């Protein structure tokens, strides 16, 4: 992609000069992130912009603290140019997650490096939405304190929620497993955070998990579906390297595909949703009796998964049978999704990724038998390596992506000096 020089566009009566300059700044900053450090001359050649324009853009990125100069370019013919690179400490984004059993936060810098990570167990189903937001704000305040020690404030806070989210309004339309309906989450957060200058956005947790799994530059990860499992089951779609969220942002609710019409009642009120046969609560119900420690609400999510893996490794027949049953149902749903969308990979995330080694063969068997196209249509099954942090990692990635979309969100150093004078 190339963007014309700002004065060329403005002089031709095209796009507004400021808009084109922001687009050029974004293009240049992304190029430094994705293509690595380079000299101004090399950037100009790679982006199809003239050297004067690139020099001006680099100067502005440096003034905003988003880029910095490094060493002299090696192997250059003639006078070597100075390398320009992304300044990781130039901006920060914060991701957060609200789920049934926990709230969490994660702050990253412009280079994607984690600088703060916090998590606390909360039985969100037993609290009113305002109380859950209070718990999250407590965690966010700690994260903001960590950034303050670095002399920074975030550009954006992005919160992932297990439910249908109206992103434009910042509202959780319905979250069956939280018991929420019509919760104006973004507004609540802004109020409790003191109406901050930075952006506050809300998104579906599985969409954010999909963002975290879509590894840039990996052709196998350009078209993926993410099935994110905890108490409930969510999904995310990445098409041609970009998140796909549907007409109103509600795409990816895989957990509420009806796969078993004679089955169990779901938290959404319908019967036989995919969630009812592959959710963590179903696995535990099949594998245990009343009074088993795995059924205790006091046992944390990670501890439950650890115990499931321990029993499976010890050849606990009942646990293995339950895992195989879940795996078959995962495969049945995965086949339906593959027939409809034919992704390059279906990534099992959350608890499904953590225990997936025990039933991946079952999933692949059902996928092969249920997909019309030969060789499962080229779709492969992958297990996430992000554990239960996939959604909050994706939220942090989206938060810092705002800077790459619009570098002018970060003030110039000269602007700050003028404001002080």
TL;DR?
Helix content is 41%, strand content 20%. It is an alpha/beta fold.
Report on the structure:
The structure is a single chain. The N terminus and C terminus are likely disordered. The two termini are 40 Å apart. It is built from 15 helices and 16 strands. A hairpin with a 4-residue loop joins strand 9 and strand 10. It has three domains: 81 residues, Winged helix-like DNA-binding domain superfamily/Winged helix DNA-binding domain (Arc Repressor Mutant, subunit A), CATH 1.10.10; 139 residues, ATPase, nucleotide binding domain (Nucleotidyltransferase, domain 5); 168 residues, ATPase, nucleotide binding domain (Nucleotidyltransferase, domain 5), CATH 3.30.420. Helix content is 41%, strand content 20%. It has 421 residues and is an alpha/beta fold. The strands form four sheets. The chain has a five-stranded mixed beta sheet.
């Amino acid at each position: 992609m190339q963007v014309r020089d700002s004065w060329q566009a403005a002089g031709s009566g095209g796009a507004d000069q400021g808009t084109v300059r922001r687009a050029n700044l974004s293009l240049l900053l992304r190029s430094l992130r994705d293509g690595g450090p380079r000299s101004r001359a090399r950037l100009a050649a790679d982006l199809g912009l003239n050297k004067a324009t690139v020099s001006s853009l680099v100067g502005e990125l440096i003034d905003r603290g988003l880029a910095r100069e490094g060493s002299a370019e090696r192997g250059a013919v003639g006078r070597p140019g100075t390398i320009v690179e992304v300044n990781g400490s130039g901006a920060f984004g914060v991701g957060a997650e609200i789920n049934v059993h926990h709230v969490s936060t994660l702050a990253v810098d412009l280079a994607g490096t984690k600088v703060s990570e916090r998590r606390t167990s909360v039985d969100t189903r037993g609290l009113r939405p305002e109380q859950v937001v209070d718990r999250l704000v407590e965690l966010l305040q700690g994260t903001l304190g960590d950034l303050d020690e670095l002399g920074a404030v975030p550009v954006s806070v992005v919160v992932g929620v297990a439910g249908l989210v109206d992103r434009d309004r910042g509202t959780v339309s319905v979250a069956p497993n939280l018991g929420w309906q019509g919760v104006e989450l973004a507004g609540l957060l802004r109020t409790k955070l003191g109406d901050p200058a930075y952006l506050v956005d809300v998104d579906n947790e599985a969409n954010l998990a999909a963002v975290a799994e879509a590894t840039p530059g990996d052709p196998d990860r350009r078209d993926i579906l993410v099935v994110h499992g905890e108490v409930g089951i969510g999904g995310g779609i990445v098409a041609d390297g970009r998140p796909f969220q549907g007409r109103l942002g509600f795409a990816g609710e895989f957990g509420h595909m009806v796969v078993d019409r004679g089955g169990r009642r779901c938290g959404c009120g319908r019967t036989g949703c995919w969630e009812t046969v592959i959710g963590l609560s179903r696995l535990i119900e099949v594998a245990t009796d009343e009074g088993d420690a795995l059924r205790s609400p006091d046992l944390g999510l990670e501890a439950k998964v650890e115990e499931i893996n321990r029993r499976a490794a010890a050849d606990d027949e009942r646990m293995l049978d339950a895992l195989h049953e879940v795996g078959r149902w995962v495969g049945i749903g995965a086949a339906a999704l593959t027939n409809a969308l034919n992704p390059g990979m279906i990534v099992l995330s959350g608890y499904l990724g953590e225990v997936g080694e025990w039933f991946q063969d079952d999933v692949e068997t059902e996928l092969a038998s249920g997909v019309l196209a030969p060789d499962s249509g080229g779709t492969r099954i992958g297990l996430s390596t992000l554990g239960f942090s996939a959604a909050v990692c994706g939220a942090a990635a989206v938060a810092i992506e705002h800077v790459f979309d619009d570098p002018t969100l970060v003030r110039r150093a000269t602007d700050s000096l003028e404001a002080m004078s």
